[in-house]
Amino acid sequence: MIKKIDIESDEFQTELELTKQFTDKVCEEYNFFYNPEDDVNESIQMGLTRNKMIYGKRYCPCFMVVGETQEERDKEDNRLCPCTPALEKEIPSMGHCHCAIFCTEDYVKSTENETVTAQENNHSQGLTKEQCEELLKQQEVNASEVEALIEARELGFVDFLLVDTREWMEWVGGRIKGTDYLVPTTSFYQSLEQIQDKKDIPIILYCHSGSRSAYCQRILLSSGYKQVLNYDYGIMTYQGDIISGEE
To answer: Cα torsion at 28, 31, 37, 39 (round to 10°)?
Structure first.
């Protein structure tokens, strides 16, 4: 069963405010700075809030939380914000954590005056049927490739499923136009029933940043699905059409 959290509820809004206070304290304690892009910070704060309400702890929203019970989750290597990999490796080496909410001052200064348009996100249309088929044999696809494949599917060149592995509240807030199914990581195995009979169709998985979907990719491949691709950096890099709402 998909877990639905009403982000307009008093409960969520109260917890969201506590989460914002929490991330403020993390920045103060470690001398971090928020990402110059406000929507990145907002998305991660909402994800932390969601996990706090579901699991009782602010697990990193960019990674799948493993374990059915709290005891099982404590034994797994789940990332609890601020997580050790971010503090010890990601922020010192990249200037920001994996989710990109916590940044160094140097990183912020280097990006706040730039228009962030990564080369991999440049839109590339006009792929042939053969090129599309080759793309769908890969393990990963980037933003421009996903956008081009969606257009190619609309033209009837190829067939594949686009599956969102984020949570219901993220899906409602905004998803890639053309997404076929929502298979949230918090109810992954139950929701997987929707595509249980589609193991021979290529599947592209995505989440916020590519981490949860990569985890789900490994599960599907080990479960007999033929072609499963991961959208490498997730919806946060997508430049195409985004839709919102329950329908």
So the answer is: -30
